[in-house]
Every structure is written in structure tokens, then in C-alpha cells.
Amino acid sequence: MAAREETLKPLMIASQAGDEAAYRALLLALAAHLRAYYKRRLKLFGKRDAEVEDLVQTTLMAIHMKRNTYSPTELLTPWVYAIAHYKLIDHLRQTRATLSDSIDDVDELVARDDALEVESNLDVAKLLAQLPTRTGRVVQSVKIEGLSTREAALKFGMKESAVKVLVHRALRRLSNIVLKDNLR
Amino acid sequence: MKTSELVDVLACDLDRVDHRAVDRALIIAIFTNVVVASVSGLLFLGARQDAVDRDSIIFLCGKIVFASILTAVAAFYLFRYARPGRLGKVPAIKIAWPLLVIVGLAVATLAMTPSPLWHREILGDHWLECLIAIPAFAIVPFAIINLALKKAAPTDLNGTGALAGLVAGGFGAIGYSLHCVDDTVPFIALWYGLAIVACGLGGAALGPRLLRW
Known about the structure:
A: mainly alpha; Arc Repressor Mutant, subunit A
């Protein structure tokens, strides 16, 4: 725990300052911790591996959206676990609420091929389809094809700042969509 | 989507963030509410219209001090509740002690008052107005605090909602105190206390709906 704190905290502080490499390393490390955390807890409920991965991703997204609420004067691990716990409770509440929703879900559960590599139910293409066309294309270029904001700004004939704002808003919106219905 | 892909998406084109943004938003909300509370008290009910004597000034200040302490204590814990991972649940007594102090003072006052006068000491002239005005004046402050909390990440939604309600109720009480002419300690303890507690309970009930993220 102490070793984890010592390596992760500097990464988080660098991430808050906008260091992409540090942030990537941090998120990958956190993903591993979160996976172990959720696996242990979801086992009791007989959940599938994909559900663990859903939760890991939901939590990573929450961490991303709320990364400004980490104060460098505090420890990082309690901050991460408080978020992980919050998302776990949220998840359990939601799944309990939707279990009685429809019997059709059962077929879907049974028919699922668990031999495939574990992926979450999130589908980027489907997600992007929920955005307005132009926004979706901008997000696609910047976040998936890896264009810089300046290149995207040129390509779409927008100001660079406008691209940034658009992408930021779109991500927020996508995250809301995911939080709402990734567990169906 | 694989988790590694998500990490790529999130890390790409990363903005720097300010870890002080939450505190700053809350501080701005609180100072805004000082103005909102005073203006709404003066605008909708008007300043108290009785003689400016020593007693009324003492009571006016007493009410403001009581409400301010209560607000400050709740706000102190609200800053902690606004972020994940800062200590566990705070015992209710640490938050509610200003209420207990005023109730203690009220009991002491009544003990020194002959019982035929209790009725007057407790009910005053405008208890119903007090009971309605304080929560009404708390609505806008509550909305402003919730707006600031959008930047935050509370993990105890009932607790955070309750604190937000108490802070708002405290501001409602400050607003109402500018108009209130009922100058007895039992009146303040009972009616101010009830109104503020109602705000706290309302906040706790609304928390999960308003603060979820």
C-alpha cells in the first residue's frame, strides 16, 4: 500500500499538470488495482468478467472527470478507493434495480460467449453515434485517429479552442451516457 | 472497448486541472450566499421595525452569531465531504453542537423564567413566519451551493446533501434574523432550530438526486 502510494501519487500530481505519459501510466496502474478490487467484490454476486471491466472503465472515467478533486496534500490511495467504492455501490444499486426489468435480458446473458477476450460492453462506434454528427466526427479525429487539436481545427475549419471545448463537452456527455446505461 | 483503449482516449490531449477549483467554487458560493441572504431578508420582509435599543441590537447580533457559527461549522465539513477519501463519517454531534448549545441556553432561560411567561417566551409573535421564511430564504443559497458542488465529487450523497442543507438553512436564518423581532432565546432555539433542521433533512433527502455523478 505504501509503495503503491509512493509511485502513484507523483504520477497523479504530474497528470494534474497535464503530463500525458504520467497520466497513461497512472491509469494503467489504477486499472490493474481496480480490476483486482472489483473482481474480489463482485465474485460474491456471481458477476461476469465483463462486468468487472465495465466497472473498471466507469471508474477510470469518473477519475478522469473528477481528477481536479484530488488535493496533493492528501494521500492518493484513499481518494481512489473512495471513488471505487462509490461506483461499486452505484453499480450494485443499478443492477438490482434493472434485474426485474425484463426477462429478455436473461437470454442475452446466456447467449454471451465468454470465451472471447474480455472487453466491456462499451462500443466506441455506438457511443459516437449518439453525438451530433459533426461533434462525433471531431471527437473521432482527435480522440481516436489521434489528430492534434490544431490539425482537427484545420480539418473542420474551426478555431482550435472551439475544438477543445467541443471535445471536452462531448466526452462529458459520453461519460454521462455511459454512466446511465452501460449496465443494461 | 478494451480498457487500454479507454486509457488512450482519456490520456490523449490531456488538459491541466486545478486541484483548488473545488474549494474556490465553494468559497465563492458561500460569499455569494452572504449577499443573497442579507438582500433577500431586507428585500422581502424588510429590516426590523422596532425601536433601536440595546436589547434589540444584542438579540439581532446574537441571532446572526448563532446562525453564522452553525453555518461555518457545517461549511467546514462540507469542504471535506466534497472530495473523495477524506475521513469517514463525521459524528452528528460535531456538526450539530451549535444547535445543542442554543437549546441548552433556552432551557436555562426557561428555568429562570416563571412558568406563566413560558408561553410568551416560546411562541413569541411570529413563529409561523419564522418557520416558513427561513426555509424559503434557504432555497437560493441551497441552489448556489449545489451548483458549486457540481465541480466536486462527494461520495456520501446524503451526508453532503444534509450539510449543504444546513449551510443553506443557516443563511436563511441570517436573512430572516434581520427582520425578526422575537427576542427570546427559547424562540430562537425552537423555531430557528426547527427551520434549520428541516433544511438539513431536506438537503439529505435531495442529495442522492442532485449530487450524483
